[in-house]
Every structure is written in C-alpha cells, then in structure tokens.
Design a protein that fits this description.
two-stranded antiparallel sheet; 4 helices; about 170 residues; single chain; 7 strands; alpha/beta; about 25% strand; Nucleotidyltransferase, domain 5; elongated
Length: about 170
C-alpha cells in the first residue's frame, strides 16, 4: 500500500497593510510633535527662600499682588511701592505698565518678578498682568520699539490680607 504524503509549502506573510499603516502614522506623529511645543510658556515657581538669603541681598525683589479690588506692586523686603485701584476700563493695566517702566529705569539689570494672585483671580487677568510686566511698546516717530522689562516671571499665591486691611 502506498502512503501519500502532503507536501506543505511555507506560508507567505502579508505585510502590505502594516506598511501602509506605518506610512500614514509616522508623518502624523512627527507633525503633531512639532506643534505641541509652540503653546508652552516656560515659567518658574518661587523657590524656598531663607531669611539669611534675604538679608544678604539689598536689591529689588519685585512682587505684583493681584487683589480683587486692586493691584499692589511692592518689594518683598522693602514693602509696598504703589497700590493701583481696580477700574473697569483697563486703566489699572496701563498704570501698571507705566510703573513697571519706572521701576525698570531704576533697576535696569533686574529681570525677575513674581506675580501673586488670590484664589478667585481669573486666568485672563493673570495673563494680562504678566503681559504688562514682561514688555512695553513705545512709538518713536514712525518706528515702534519693544522693550523688555521683567521677562522672568514666577507665579504664586497671594498672601492672605489682614482683617483690618482693605475690603
């Protein structure tokens, strides 16, 4: 009796669908990786500071505190510089920008500042205050010049107001 044997041929892998997926997926991932970095703003949080460090430095440590009724500009060690009352028309941001230019003329080498906001402060208001602190635009004749004020801004929580002070 004869024995029949099956001759098996090796199976071929069909990888064209996988290659098509890779061809579409790689450019998509590369294009999204490039645009995700454009919307990020680098910021630093205020670090822990000791009283000894504050005693060594006698330069400006600019703080802008955003309150519900005002914007308070001050020096961490020296105290309040100016209080700008809140207005509906945006005059408070113009006054803040003018004050930042005056402070920059007195401390031209200073680049750091802190923005301290109360918990109910809107994100839009924080960004507007940061924009007013970061740079200023001046018109000289037909030219518009942009000057850098305090580009390194740290964000934190505003100190709690004492019961007798303010509203």
């Amino acid at each position: 009796m004869r024995v029949r044997r099956l001759h098996k041929t090796p199976a071929h892998l069909e990888i064209t669908a996988f290659i098509n997926l890779i061809v579409v997926l790689v450019p998509f991932l590369l294009s999204t990786a490039v645009f995700s970095r454009l919307a990020v703003m680098d910021m630093t949080l205020p670090g822990p500071s000791s009283a000894l460090e504050q005693l060594k430095g006698n330069d400006l440590q600019l703080e802008v505190v955003i309150r519900r009724d005002a914007i308070e500009v001050g020096d961490r060690l020296g105290g309040l510089i100016q209080r700008i009352d809140r207005s509906a028309g945006g005059e408070d941001l113009r006054a803040l920008a003018t004050l930042m230019v005056q402070v920059k003329t007195k401390f031209p080498d200073k680049l750091e500042a802190s923005v301290l906001a109360e918990p109910d402060t809107s994100y839009d208001q924080i960004v507007q205050v940061m924009d007013a602190m970061r740079a200023t635009v001046t018109a000289r004749g037909t030219k518009v010049e942009r000057a850098e004020l305090f580009p390194n801004i740290a964000i934190g929580d505003a100190p709690v107001r004492k019961r007798g002070a303010g509203a």
